[in-house]
């Protein structure tokens, strides 16, 4: 049975996440303004009916769930392997700062950790649950898999392979979304990459390389 707990969140990472969300709201309004501008432009050069057709088409295009994010990230840190593994299977995995950083409540339990997030002035909420599995690979590396659901539905999977190399700990993270998103989220996803890197830096990880993809 999950219970609410006072989980300590890395303050520097939380600060980055909050800064991103303030600016992300502005970006969302820019996307809306572009769509409205295209509608008005169609109305000016044509008439109301073609403009309505264009407007409906744009709404369908930007909201239709067609994109499925995936990718890889390589991290490097001075922390030892055991500490990194503990961080990834703990209540605040480094790669999920955008989730636990804005959570109203973090509940821990035998079945995993749940982040409860409210939005639209508290009228709606999402419960994101993270379940972890840990194993040792054939190359003596440690692998941590994070399986994430949102309101009971598959949301994403992260797999982190942790190993020691040249006196440092290297973490290879592979992630894939289990949900599709609309094109309206593409600018936000691209814009968020910089802040994701900043949250990792704030937690003591150097981002060596990142490869993000948006498949159909």
From TrEMBL:
This is SRPBCC family protein. It comes from Halobacterium sp. NMX12-1. Keywords: Membrane, Plasmid, Transmembrane, Transmembrane helix. The chain crosses the membrane at residues 26-45, 51-67.
């Amino acid at each position: 049975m999950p219970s609410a707990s006072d989980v300590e969140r890395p303050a520097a990472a939380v600060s980055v996440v909050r800064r991103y969300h303030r600016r992300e709201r502005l970006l969302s309004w820019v996307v809306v303004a572009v769509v409205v501008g295209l509608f008005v432009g169609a109305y000016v050069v044509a008439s109301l009916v073609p403009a309505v057709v264009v407007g409906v088409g744009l709404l369908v295009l930007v909201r239709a769930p067609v994109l499925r994010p995936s990718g890889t990230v390589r991290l490097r840190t001075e922390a030892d392997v055991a500490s990194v593994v503990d961080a990834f299977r703990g209540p605040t995995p480094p790669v999920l700062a955008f989730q636990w950083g804005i959570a109203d409540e973090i509940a821990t339990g035998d079945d995993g950790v749940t982040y409860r997030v409210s939005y639209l002035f508290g009228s709606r909420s999402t419960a994101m649950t993270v379940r972890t599995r840990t194993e040792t690979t054939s190359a003596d590396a440690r692998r941590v898999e994070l399986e994430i659901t949102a309101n009971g539905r598959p949301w994403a999977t992260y797999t982190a392979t942790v190993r020691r190399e040249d006196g440092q700990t290297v973490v290879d993270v592979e992630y894939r979304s289990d949900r599709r998103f609309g094109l309206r989220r593409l600018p936000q996803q691209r814009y968020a990459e910089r802040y994701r890197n900043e949250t990792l830096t704030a937690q003591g990880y150097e981002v060596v390389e990142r490869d993000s993809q948006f498949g159909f």
